[in-house]
Amino acid sequence: MYSSNPPTIDNLSSSTDKVALVVEKRALAGLGTARISQLDFVKFAVSLLFLAGIMIWVNNFLELAAGGGTFLVVAAIVGGYMAMNIGANDVANNVGPAVGSGALTMTGAVVLAAVFEISGALVAGGDVVGTIKKGIIDPALIADSSTFIWLMLAALLAGAIWLNIATIIGAPVSTTHSIVGGVLGAGIAAGGWEIANWDKMATIAASWVISPLLGGLIAAMFLYLITRLIIDQKNLMGAARQYVPYIMAVMAWAFATYLILKGLKKIWHVDFLTAGFAGLVVGVLVFVFVRPMISYAATRLENTRESINTLFTVPLIFSAALLSFAHGANDVANAVGPLAAITDTLSSHDVSAKAAIPLWVMIVGALGLAVGLALYGPKLIRTVGSEITHLDKTRAFCVALAAAITVIIASQMGLPVSSTHIAVGGVFGVGFLREYLQAYRARMDQEIKNRIKGDDPKAVAQFLELFQSSAFAEQGEMVKELRKNACDKLYLGKKDRKDLTKVYREELVKRSMVIKIAAAWVITVPVSGLMAAFLYYAIRGIMLP
Predict the structure, then answer these.
(1) Which pLDDT value is given to residue 484?
(2) Per-residue pLDDT tens digits for 137-149
(3) Rg of the chain, C-alpha, whole Å
(4) Which residues, in sequence order, are bridge partners of residue 355?
(5) What are the CA-CA distances from residue 444 to residues 146, 225, 342, 437, 448 (Å)?
(6) How is the chain split into domains, by residue range?
(7) DSSP assignment string, 196-212
(8) Partner residues linked to 128 by β-bridges
(9) What is the dihedral of CA 255, 256, 258, 263, to 10 degrees?
């Protein structure tokens, strides 16, 4: 081994030493690859053990189905596989911003999300689920119960496979859209084009645009308000003491209302006004509780941006927990809904609009979410939390708050939205706002430099220092005054124009991630639909004599 200052190829004189160094580097690289391969093998083995456990466990419940026991075992395994992929892909949206901002460690986020996902599924997941997701196909046009069972199994497997592929390539996609595409494709294969409800499909397609735009706009709006009211003030702690309690109260109202409307709707169904009033009460109580705490903290923290971030750490952790709980309560149906429908049909030999969810089916879904999250969730958590744009705690807080408010607004307007699209759209929104604000300030700096070019360099530096330390509104007034007092028209040379263009084009959001994720969203329904149609024909060919 080498000393604390390892040699490079260039500073080694002996060819033997160079060869030795290359061999050592390749050996270390091979060791790292071997460790990664071993970890992947362990994950794969644990996944197989989980699915094998489902197979063994479900054998004890075969008496619940009047015949078709082997088919029920297969369906349960596919349902567990779907739940694992939901945990690996979709849960990242709830905890990714908190991890990317440093409010939670990866291990802490996985444990927190697993606990609250399971709690949401088992406590508030409901005991009945719709058999035809979103009403996208007409069950009256399904020939018989056997056809329906094959259809649902094909839809479930296709949705799970697509989610698996999306997780491998690092694209967070909508699990609801995955299963919708599966049901649509298998439904068309089973009953023809007329079986589809194309009006419903049009509204779902609209959500590809509505969800990320709403989430991005609301997240950017809150970040802009926090930036103007707090971050761009000279006395950050004074501004925080004044405004942060109100921001926390808005968060408490939004999450209490969101949790009542979406997370608890299957065990406590209330209208929006009731939920909104209950959320308002919670918001007022939180305001009264946190106001003295913020005032006390403001006297002990330094007057820095990082201190402002510190104030949002605990709210971020709470938001991740509540989003996970609501996700478990709602999206577990994506995993166990088709499985519950298959179980109900095997028992009743009839196709029903609603199907009871046996406890064992709900447990399969809940545990599958947790296993998938623990094994494969960190990849997507990193994607959402840090690979799109840099998130500090303030920005991550805005993303989480936007997720709750967007769902509330959309549900009251009857707009179809995806929680995945909302969360990722929120990350895009704060990232693009960062680009705009940074470009604006850079352009102002450049304009000041060009307008007072030729003046005393020391005076120019002092003016720029004053400008950069001023509040956002004050900066605008300073530039207006500078333009007003200018003796001659500003001349920008070729280099100046080039500098401004370069500043304007500085990218804080990775465009490659935007393109990859947007493309994955667009093809989710078609790809899962095509796979489901193929799988339906394959299963039908196997099952028919």
Answers:
(1) 65
(2) 887 788 788 888 8
(3) 28
(4) 129
(5) 69, 20, 63, 11, 6
(6) 42-436+507-543
(7) B-HHHHHHHHHHHHHHH
(8) 356
(9) 110
